[in-house]
Structures are given as C-alpha cells and as structure tokens.
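Q&A log
Question type: sequence-to-structure
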Amino acid sequence: MSNFPESSFEKAKVFIKSKARGLERSRFQFIFENGSKESVLTELEKYQNEDGGFGHGIEPDFWLPHSSPMATWAAGQILMEIGADKNEPIVRSMVSFLATSIDSETGMWHSVLPENNDFPHAPWWHWHESVQENWSFNPGAELAAFLVHWSAEESEPAEIGWRVIANAVDHLMRKSEMDKHEINNFQALVEIMKPHQATFNSKYNYSLIEVSEQVMKLAENCVNKDVSTWTKGYQPLPLDFIDTPEHPLCERLGSLVEKNLDFYKQQMSDEGIWDISWSWGSYPEEYEIARGHWKGILAVNRYKQLKAFGYIK
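Response status: OK
Response body:
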C-alpha cells in the first residue's frame, strides 16, 4: 500500500470531534487519545432503556427507541471493545434483558421486531412474517457469547448462552456459504469463547478450533475477490473479516488485503472519511441523518484498522 497521508487522519479527527455522535467521539478518544472507558459508558447509557436493552437508533439504520436484541448487540460490541467488566451496571442490566428477551419456543432472539415498522428504517430492517429466516443467527450467535462472557458460571443467563451456542454451532457446521454479517457474528463468538475453550470443547461435538476453521472457510468464500466490482454497491471485502495483520485470513487472501487498504485510500473523501455504500430508498430526511452518523462510525472503525496495520500511530 502506498503511504497513507497523516493529514487525512488529522482531517478525520476534526470531522469526528465536530460532526460525529458523542458515542463515536468517545470511542475515538478511547482508541487513539487514551480516553476513558467511563466516557464511552456514559455515551452508551444514553441508548439504554430501563429494561436493560438498547434502542434509540444506536444502529443508525433503524430508529426504534424501544429495546431490541439487534440494538443491544450494537452496544455489546462497544462494551467488548472497551473491555467492560461484567459487574458494570450497564452490563448487568444488558445481560438481564438478553436472558429475558429470548424466544423460549425457538431458542433465538428476534433480529427484527414488528415495532421497527413504526419508525424510520432501512428496508432490510422492515418486519414481516418469517423475516427471521433471513437473519438466522445474526446476531444471536454473538449475543449468546455475550451471555457466557458476562455472566457467572452456571448461572441461568450463562446456560441460556451455552444452549444458543449449541444450536448456532450446529447451524454453522452445516453451511457451505453464509452472509457477511452472520459470519462476523461467528467470528466474534470464536474470539469471545477462547477463554472458555475447555468448556466449549467438553459441551459440543465440534472443538473451538474446528468451529474457527469453518468460520474462516465461510469468510474466505464470502469475500468478493473481483476488485473491479468493489465500487458497485455493498460488497463483502477482505477487511470486513480481518482486524489485524496477524489474522490468519491475511495469509489466505494474500494481496487482496493490500488491495483493500488501497481501496480505502481511494474511496476516502477530502475530509479524510468515507461515505456509506448503501441507501434506504425511503425516509429521505432521516436517511441523510443516518448517513452522517454512519460516516462517524466508519471513520472510527477504519482508522482503528489502519492503526492495527501500522498506518496510523
């Protein structure tokens, strides 16, 4: 990759600090400026409801204020990023929500709720009968891992997590292809389970190593390897599955990783940030607001990757 201009990062910093949401500003400060976990938690609390779940557009493409498993997943990812402790009140109440919001009949969380339809949202967040078939274990596989990670051993929430993981792993091992987002959920599950590897291996027919290998095969298969089409809408790119240069997929995907880094540089705006590659086709005013929020999220996420790859100090 050709040199990544440091001025771009400085411009992005100005954008994030002046135009991004408080949540992204606090994440940026935590990752790049020795910011505190407490400031991130303070921003996250603004999206949490009394029942412990999250809403209020934390995921900018659906504006449901009420708690949903998907919005709670978005919050959980940030809690993982900052290394939040299971004794944090925000975490304890989130665990309570997840333990009580699972569908006892299906053993899954509802990825999309009927109430989504009452608020501005992208079309893929629109609820209809049988919509769950489109989502499968996105984000349930990762939510289950959250429960194990943040619950006391052998507690009811932990046991719920282990039960969902059992079904999720059976589903995973039968698949020959999978959606990018669901793969990401399973990637996170594998990482979160590493400290619990012995327990994982004792509970299931597949070892964590076997599960990890299956996830990597699905990710490698999912990546769009035709670089010439990367500008044509929403595409699964190598760096959607890779967070550090040490990731085993780097070796498997070879020069595609470098080409993805170059692509990020080419797609960067004069402000040092990136625009989204999707649109709603409805709610034009709200979409523009969501688009602005996503620019902040993409900037933080991508500069975090660039830092991991040594392009940002």
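Response note: The mean pLDDT is 96.
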